[in-house]
Amino acid sequence: MARLLVEPHFRLQGKVAFRCLDPVPHPVNFGGPHNFVQVPGFPRRGRLAVSFRFRTWDLTGLLLYSSLGDGLGHVELMLSEGQVNVSIAQTGRKKLQFAAGYRLNDGFWHEVNFAAQENHAVISIDDVEGAEVRVSYPLLIRTGTSYFFGGCPKPASRSGCHSNQTAFHGCMELFKVDGQLVNLTLVEGRRLGYYAEVLFDTCGITDRCSPNMCEHDGRCYQSWDDFICYCELTGYKGETCHQPLYKESCEAYRLSGKTSGNFTIDPDGSGPLKPFVVYCDIRENRAWTVVRHDRLWTTRVTGSSMERPFLGAVQYWNASWEEVSALANASQHCEQWIEFSCYNSRLLNTAGGYPYSFWIGRNEEQHFYWGGSQPGIQRCACGLDRSCVDPALHCNCDADQPQW
């Protein structure tokens, strides 16, 4: 049987590998007031296509500008309020404008792919499936000779870049023009295109909000060379939300001429504790600070025992325990009024025994004095002046009588 030798219909030339080589990023740092990178395009084509990656903290900046061929107009891609805005201006026609993306000034890398051809334009951000923006519009596209990334040369009249947008500040990489990856090594060596006020193979973006320099939960926003603290709803003001908006006490409001009412106070000033609302009972020569709590109404307690005691926690309105403590520390006098009504129920039990009831102070210590008595004395007020119903006891409730 004859054997037929078939020659293969392909040949290998050069270095061939059985894998795809991803392009190596060469970031470009845009940090000057008039920075730009200008690269040549492929003129008079019917489809314009560009792509690139960028990262920035700035809300605004020119990403791309290109004049269309045959005097048909120009194309601009600009960052505005954290999204990419597209503007296509054509002679004798209404300008086409649309946008894509959200909060793209977050300091991370984002990829932009844009294409425009007759009656159609599309842009996608980060290759998110289904998230591209497509627009149908009467367009006539002829590609121009140059593409400007990051800004326009000054003066613009000689370059053909006539954008009013501010220069982009941040980093870019992987420039593609009409499907061709731009060789930035040639650009850096001034053998391809032009550039000004940029650095190659580096990205000098700095995170100025980490750590957050804004105090009291102020929100930090940053740009290329600065950061700003937004202090709304924090109760503080200043460059870093350090200065308190509110006075430290009701007495301070009294001295400023205020009358009784609800006021926000900040007992620790610029300290870590938050301001809170209190009622200021302002008299002629002093002011009382009243902090409301959730136990203003009578709570009936039945069946309490040593094994299953009743716990009556006091929760202060608008303020944490630490904030109320700061107020107490800054006050000349502090008191908490609690009413204990008894019916066949003992309070201290006996003069020498362990009390049935006690209250816990702000430092988690137990207290056994009630009704006008003194700290450290296990008595009520009647036990001090010996006016209790039963002289042998130190509180009226300990008489255990069937009446309120």
TrEMBL record:
Residues 241-293 form the Fibrinogen C-terminal domain. Its main location: membrane. SMART domains: LamG (SM00282). Transmembrane segments: none annotated. It comes from Pteropus alecto (Black flying fox). GO terms for cellular component: membrane. Residues 26-203 form the Laminin G domain. InterPro entries: ConA-like_dom_sf, EGF, Fibrinogen-like_C, Fibrinogen_a/b/g_C_dom, Laminin_G, Neurexin-related_CASP. The keyword Lipid biosynthesis does not apply. This is Contactin-associated protein 1. Residues 205-242 form the EGF-like domain. Pfam families: Laminin_G_2 (PF02210).
